[in-house]
Amino acid sequence: MKKIDILEKKLKIEEKRKEIQKLEKESSHPDFWRNSILASEKMKRLAELQKEISEIENLRACFRKGEKKKFEKILKRLELKTFLSGKYDQSNAVLSLHAGQGGVEAMDWTEMLKRMYIRFIEGQKWQWKLADETRGEEAGVKSVTLIVYGKFAFGFLKREAGTHRLVRQSPFNADKLRQTSFSLVRALPLIEEEEVKINGSDLEWQFFRASTQGGQNVQKVSTAVRLKHKPSGIIVVSQEERYQEQNRKIALQVLRVKLWEVQERKRREEEQKFKKGGKKASWGTQIRSYVLHPYHLVRDLRTGYETKNVESVLDGNLEKFIEAEIYQLSLI
Hints:
Blueprint: H1 2-10, H2 13-27, H3 36-65, H4 68-83, E1 93-99, H5 103-123, E2 127-135, E3 141-149, H6 153-157, E4 162-169, E5 178-189, E6 203-208, E7 224-229, E8 234-238, H7 244-273, E9 286-291, E10 297-300, E11 306-307, H8 310-314, H9 319-330
Parallel strand pairs: 4-9
Antiparallel strand pairs: 1-3, 1-5, 2-3, 4-5, 6-7, 7-8, 9-10, 10-11
Helix pairs in contact: 2-3, 3-4
């Protein structure tokens, strides 16, 4: 029980119980829904808090019943959250994948990673939306951007940022030669509007007809959006939604994230000027190797964690890799 008591203090459970009482009292007021947007935000917060309390109560119940395996699983998940205390760790995320060296092989590998991450996201009970995708001429995708909605989405997915390397027998070569492919994964928090202000006069909008799924036809209405931020030159495309207004909203969300990234990069570069021997922050470092030939192995180069069950990893079972990275950083 001592472990649970310590965990409750770290997660500030008593404070959250008081916040629940406050929100429940507010929600019972006759004027609560007068401001529907604010009311919805408060009800969402209430549901999140109730879920956290329910997890702790479930943990105590497992301890009392002697359900050791279930107890350890819930305990590990809750302990993991105590390490995710960064400013944006609880935020939604923007996950983007980009094919690197390897031509059509790399594009196919990027599509494999897209499938892997979607399965991981769905396994976490998060929601996701396809913001943009550029398909390869022969196979796979050149790049893809997903918006991921879920508590701790960024805290988990930021551990996946970096270069992912695949070694396999080529399915696109008659001789089935061994081929190495690379794909770059980037993860950024979905930034709120008030954190990055965008001047409307700095924007240049273009609208065009989006290709339908499969790219065989084009829509009759110009629903797709191409947005350029003139001061920075950043261009964002969104064409996956059916309506122009939805694509405009997504384009602005992604642009806000990209502008935040530019600000963060400048801040990190300034910090590096005052640190001797510090490594320059970069998205391009290799973090993980996936080998399908001549043997089966997935190995994380940062933590050393590895598994021979490559199929399971490619099916979205990434928890062990992410946990290893979080626990390693918590010891630094």
